[in-house]
Amino acid sequence: MTHPYFLTVAYAGAGFHGWQIQTELRSGQGDLWAALRALDPEAPMPQGTGRTDAGVHARAQGTLVRTSRAWEPYRLLAALNAHLRDDIRVMAAQPAPEAFFPRQHAVAKRYVYRLGQGPAADPLAAAFRWHVRGAAPLDLEAMAAAAAPLLGTHDFTSFRCAECVAKTPIRTLYGLRCEAHEGGVDLVFEGTSFLMHQVRIMAGTLVEVGRGRRRPDSLGALVAVRDRSLAGPTAPPHGLCLERVWYEAQWGIGEPSPWGERS
After folding, report:
1. Is 161 helix (H, G, I), strand (E, B) or coil?
2. How far apart are CA 173 and CA 246, in angstroms?
3. What is the arithmetic mean of pLDDT over 127-139?
4. How does DSSP assign 76-134, residue by residue?
């Protein structure tokens, strides 16, 4: 008999070659499994909600672990963190229902892509923002207008990298907001799930709009043409963070999705 726990895991992506375990390279899943096996040598590999690319950060990587004995959740959190390096941490722990599986039962995710602006990159934020150089600030009104045709359910082939192995390019984007902050802009993406590099390609394309290099009314046609070569560049990974995940309400993990359950 094993005891399932749901963990919320955060990590700074610069030190990792993504979440998924690697044979020789460091990964979030690999680090967490090593910490878990220090407590429970026969523990199976932790299962995350989804992959993050090399260099991408996470504030809310939902993870299922199984242990051979029962733990008080805070003690499990503290014990795991004692065996983890400073750039990855278990932020919360709770018992999980026996049949819960984070990847299968996630219904929506929020990613935030952070942009920096100004004459020079802020050294205290540079590890977490893509600094967009330019004499003029990004045109946020144009970027917001350009984002509108991306909302809803579409074939997002134009924003899918060649290495993506998803069975279908159809995804639903619930929200896409441009939020100005001192020294930068946050692009907030909320949807059912995302294709490999989808958010980063969308971010790179919206930056082109904000720089005046692409028309704000052009993204609807870009979606329709289904051609990755016509979209913008893939934004660098260090600006991207997995911020939140919503799960099916029946499992009692976090708050219910504001967009309801998947059909």
Report:
1. coil
2. 14
3. 91
4. HHHHHHHTS-TTEEEEEEEE--TT--HHHHEEEEEEEEEEE-SSS--TTTTTTSEE---
Q: Which region, left, alpha or beta, applies to residue 9 given φ > 0 means left and ψ of -120 to 50 means alpha? A: beta
> Any catalytic annotation for residue 53?
yes
Q: What is the pLDDT of residue 135?
A: 74
pLDDT per residue as tens digits for the range 36-83: 999 999 999 999 998 899 999 999 999 999 999 999 999 999 999 999
What CA–CA distances, in Å, run from 61 to 92, 193, 223, 225, 244?
Answer: 11, 14, 29, 33, 8
Query: Could you state, in order of their start, the residue ranges of all structural domains in the chain?
Result: 3-100, 107-244
Q: What is the pLDDT of residue 80?
A: 98
Residue 132 near residue 207, CB atoms below 8 Å: yes
Q: Do domains 3-100 and 107-244 have the same CATH topology?
A: yes
Q: How big is the chain, counted in residues? A: 263
**How many C-beta atoms lie closer than 10 Å to residue 145's C-beta?**
16
Cut 0.90: pTM above it: yes
53, 122, 139, 186: the active-site residue: 53
CATH of domain 107-244: 3.30.70.660
DSSP state at residue 50: -
The CATH number of 3-100, from 1.10.260.40, 3.30.70.580, 3.40.640.10, 2.40.50.180, is 3.30.70.580
Q: How far is Cα 17 from Cα 171, in angstroms, rounded to an integer?
A: 25
Strands 47-48 and 57-67: antiparallel
Residue 100 has pLDDT above 80, yes or no: yes
